[in-house]
Amino acid sequence: MDSLKEDLKKQIIEQLNLEDLSVADIADDALLFNDQGLGLDSIDALELIVLLEKYHGIQLTNPEEGKEAFKSIDTMAEYIRKRKAA
Amino acid sequence: MKVIMAYCNLRADECLVNGKVVMRRDAGSEDSWFKQIYKQQELVYPKFYKMDVLSQAGYLASELIKRANPGIMEAYADDEIALVFANASSSAETDRRFVQSYAGGGSPSPSLFVYTLPNIVLGEIAILNKWYGENMFAVLPKFAPGFYLDYSEILLASGSRAVLCGWLEATAGRTDVFLFMVEEQENGTEFNAENLLHLSRTAAAF
Amino acid sequence: MIYIGAEVIVSPLGDNAEDNWQALSENRSGIALVPAAGFNKEDIHLAKITGLSGHLRFQQLVIKALASLEERIDASILASDRTIVLISSTKGALDDNLHDQFSETCTSVMQQFNLSHLPIVISNACISGVLALNVAGSMVETRQYEHVIVIGCDVASDFVLYGFQSLFAVSDKPCAPFDAARNGITLGEGCGAALISATKSVFKNPPLELLTGTSANDANHISGPSRTGEGLVRSVHRTMEKHGTGAEEIDFICAHGTGTVFNDEMEAIAFNRLSLADKPLNSLKGYFGHTLGAAGAIETIVCMQMMRNNMLIKSLGYCDAGTSQPLNIILENGPKKLRTILKTASGFGGGNASLMIRNL
To answer: Whole-angstrom Cα distance, residue B28 to residue B25?
Structure first.
């Protein structure tokens, strides 16, 4: 199991107050901002930006950068890896 | 006659609706008092977990009133129920948490910041119920029946047909929440200062 | 008839309504670049009052405005039992006391001016000012009080700035309401005060008429406006209907116009739905920044100066159309007979409020 993805799920649950969810409830490819996925909203998107900095030391300078990156756990993990490699 | 048709009191350890104890706090539980009420009352609204303590208090009390008085809200059009709330501490509880989010080396939290205004609870209730009516939030030194009487008079004379009123003191150290629904009815507990003061102090008999 | 007058503005542009008007007629802005003001020590555009800093500045600003207003009204009014003060503010004296943002100011104001009643604080996000004016008008209409003084006041703070930065809502240049290149708000501080009364003689100078309005919630999102402008449409519609005012009677609209992509777009949609899109329209936030709880009061008072001088003031910061539906944004100052104007406000929590002022 990809530990980065598992960590991400835990961090998201904590940072976004998703109390009624567990790590097992979040599929790697679930669409985070889709109602059928996690149903996150615009404020959650901003908290994800805070999360990236807090847990992964990555800064986003505007929310637009996050749109592609935050589609799913898969895309988030990929984005983190890409930014860290650069 | 303006009457108080339904009311809810949330105190530190108990929750009463229309004067009857609905639930008592489990001191041994890890969950906060408001989470306990949410779970035990089997409410389903995942947004609850994102709300700050003021919004949780307003949400819970208004939902409990609706439950205990089925149909009470449906009698009105979507803009006829006004929301008139007040407290003494404004959003200080959440303000403190927001400051903590950045004061110690972290970053300002957007999800906390959006709750650093006391009227957000009105927005949460309006969103849930799809109410497009009048809103008011006032900061007063203590529960003041006169404020609700005066402002309800104004609202009921200008398009609102019912007023959901609330006193919302919900901080880490204090829970003193009193929500009540004011309507024009033939019979019921009259909406006046004495009754308001009396009902605001409702607590379990033992 | 409900009168509004004895108006005062204390802002970066001056200590009274007349000085503020002078600055506006010269299109001078109170916004300046403040070095290292941001959370990461970035330079941030803010509209701050020179010399207003430190301890008790919120209280001082309120007292200054009320003292100035006092000189413009009959001497017996302030201490009367039939008079009450409403303070509209979002964060009050937050920097002085995070745990109790209002009571010291209310107590001090009551003592200093010998008020009969403790001021009531209305804290309803950015619609507070317009809401407080409406409450004042209604209190006088129903004779709960004879004279109501509205003081809208908010001071700049790191708390609020950092919060808006966390929302990525702070503009990287002076805010540009309705403009195609707009990208956020510019925060400001200030105080606007006015007396509302049914007794014309208590005003030392001629008042105008307040047509009390209404408020309506969007029932959509706690920090973003409705995409259809539902709450604003309902509020304006109800306000106009209350007074039997037709669209053709509105001479000018002072919109909320914060400079965010979403707010200004929402207002454009709402005013089009209301068939008011052709009305000369501006936002005043290019001059004052967004003064939050004070905005509704300060901006309504500026409208009164426009009416007293029969002059439209250009919407500062606007160059190119930036909303999906058209608006008639005022591009240059110019004379216009202003009989009836509409003021609107929208805010966090989904609130929307509106009122009208009529020239006498």
So the answer is: 9
- ipTM for the whole complex: 0.97
Distance of CA C64 to the CA centre of its chain: 18
Residue B205 lies in a domain: no
- Which of B177, B149, B181 shows the shortest CA–CA distance to B11? B177
Please tell me the total number of residues recorded for chain C in this structure: 360
B203 phi, psi to nearest 5 deg: -145, 165
Closest CA to B125 of B91, B82, B167, B174: B82
CATH number of the domain to which B41 belongs? 3.40.47.10
- In chain A, the residue whose alpha carbon lies closest to the alpha carbon of C167 is A46
In the numeric block, which tokens belong to residue C182? 């707009």
Nearest to C153 by CA among C10, C326, C309: C10
Question: What mean pLDDT value characterizes chain C?
Answer: 98
Confidence tier at B2 by pLDDT (50, 70, 90): very high
CATH number of the domain within which A44 lies: 1.10.1200.10
pLDDT tens, C292-317? 999 999 999 999 999 999 999 999 99
C49 Cβ neighbours under 8 A, 6+ residues apart: C10, C11, C12, C61, C189, C190
Q: B149 is in which domain, residue-wise?
A: 2-23+30-200
pTM: 0.97
Domain tally for chain A? 1
Chain A residues with CB inside 8 Å of B110's CB? 43, 46-47, 50
Both tokens of B53, joined, read 């303590």
What residues of chain B lie within 8 A of the CB of A47, using their CB? Answer: 109-111
Q: Hunting for tokens 């160059």 — which residue is that?
A: C319
Q: Please report the domains of chain C, with CATH numbers, ordered by start residue.
A: 3-174+187-202 (3.40.47.10), 208-358 (3.40.47.10)
Structure confidence by residue, pLDDT tens digits, C142-170:
999 999 999 999 999 999 999 999 999 99
Residues 6+ apart with CB under 8 A from C240: C246, C247, C250, C342, C356
**Which residues, at least 6 apart from C214, have a Cβ–Cβ distance to it below 8 Å?**
B134, B158, B159, C134, C235, C238, C239, C242, C353, C354
Nearest CA in chain C to B78: C219
How far apart are the C-alpha atoms of B168 and A34, rounded to whole Å? 34
Domain coverage including residue A11: 3-85
Enumerate the residues of chain A whose CB falls inside 8 A of the CB of residue C223: 43
- The pLDDT-based confidence of A35 (bands split at 50, 70, 90) is confident
